[in-house]
Amino acid sequence: MSVRIVLGTQWGDEGKGKAIDTFAGDYDYVARYNGGNNAGHTIVNEYGIFKIHLTPSGVFYPNVTCLVGGGVVMDPAVMLDEMKSLVDAGIVLKDRLLISPRSHVIMPYHKVLDGLYEDAKGKGATGTTRRGIGPTFADKVSYNGIRWGDFADSEIFASRLKMQLTLKNKIIIALGGSALAFDAIYDEYMGYYEELKPYIRELFPIVHDGLKNGKNFLLEQAMGTCLDTDWGTYPFVTGSTTIASAATTGLGIPPQAIDEVVGIAKAYTTRVGGGPLPTEIFDDEFAIETLSEVAATTGRIRRGGWFDVEVVRFASMISGINQIFLTKLDILSAFDEIKICTGYELDGKSVHYYDLDSYQLGRVTPIYETLPGWRVDIRDIREYADLPPEAQAYVERVEELVGVKVGWVTNGPEREAIIPR
């Protein structure tokens, strides 16, 4: 039996989908255990290019059973669209994709409220994806959530939906929105349930029988460590826990069963939305253009910055990361010199990520170390020894500063663009 967690060490968008796709063929189960469709993992393989939001990225391997745990919140329309695109590409989902009845459902009022809250905050907006993720998690912990299990009895679902519309419509109207109608939502969501019903199954016995029988599990985290509700840059965070411990609550994996945690780290740093990004680049137009990206889920521009050791080291400590999977090294080929943030100063004092709240983090002065670039296209290299010496030196300096072995390096979006060490 082997249980490996793959998680993001920064603010998401680190390349977790590629890591999962790399590892998944060796596992019996690949599972999502947190987040919702505010996460997007881009997969490039022989089937095409896919932006996966809810389906575990191991779905492309026919031997893998994919599990969506109760810790995931689900927009059924997004789930069904995603499933259709996979089936159209020739992927078999029957008996291979299983969804927990404990998973909370993103309802129309969650998305409406998400947008109204952001608009009402004005300049203080958090920068959410407006997909209803936060309001759904808020309902979950305030006893107002609706789970797939509630749909099994149509009267229970109707009762819970009526109650929530009574509450939510008052808030929606107060914030300038229009009230939502019961009948349209009831019919739409019961229709979704009928389509998804064959895939909804209690996962606890499947997981524990698998552990007992020596099956191998690959657990796929959404978002990044610094978006965690407790340990991230609150309030500029997501609605769920994004560290390794979430696998216990979100899927039912006992902590002692976890063998390895692989931390995915981009060779530089990006962030979508509001909140601090200590190494963000403001004064170098070429660097900004090179390191900024378009987010897979929202289409928004990711702000770009240099690699931040403080962030990745913290993520490694809190989740017990054993190895780093370093992505997008090829992007740094564009630079003559490359900076690494080795620490922070605030008001003349040396500080760490964990010393600071998000507002203090936004005021720190990053301490940089500058390494020579390599200015060589490395995208076709498949052996670590064939990388330019400067590229190897960069990888090994990251490893030294973070204090965790870099086990893999990626140098392109394709499935084969990976260099094991």
Written description of the protein model:
The protein is an alpha/beta fold and 421 residues long. It has 3 domains: 2-101 and 200-261, Adenylosuccinate Synthetase, Chain A, domain 1 (3-Layer(aba) Sandwich), CATH 3.40.440.10; 104-196, Adenylosuccinate Synthetase, subunit A, domain 2, CATH 1.10.300.10; 264-420, Adenylosuccinate Synthetase, Chain A, domain 3 (Alpha-Beta Complex). Helices cover 31% and strands 23% of the residues. It contains 12 helices and 20 strands. A 9-stranded mixed beta sheet has the order 7-5-2-9-1-10-15-19-20, sandwiched between helices. Strands 14, 16, 17 and 18 form a 4-stranded mixed beta sheet that branches. Strand 16 (337-346) and strand 17 form a beta hairpin.
Sum this structure up briefly.
The chain has 421 residues and is an alpha/beta fold. It is 31% helix and 23% strand. 45% of the residues are buried.
Describe the SSE topology.
Blueprint: E1 2-8, H1 16-23, E2 29-32, E3 41-45, E4 48-52, E5 65-68, E6 73-74, H2 76-88, E7 97-99, E8 104-105, H3 108-121, H4 133-141, H5 154-174, H6 182-196, H7 204-212, E9 216-224, H8 246-251, E10 260-266, E11 269-271, H9 285-291, E12 293-294, E13 301-305, E14 307-308, H10 309-319, E15 323-327, E16 337-346, E17 349-351, H11 358-361, E18 365-372, H12 389-402, E19 405-410, E20 418-420
Parallel strand pairs: 1-9, 1-10, 2-5, 2-9, 5-7, 6-8, 10-15, 14-16, 15-19
Antiparallel strand pairs: 3-4, 11-13, 12-13, 16-17, 16-18, 19-20
Helix pairs in contact: 3-4, 3-5
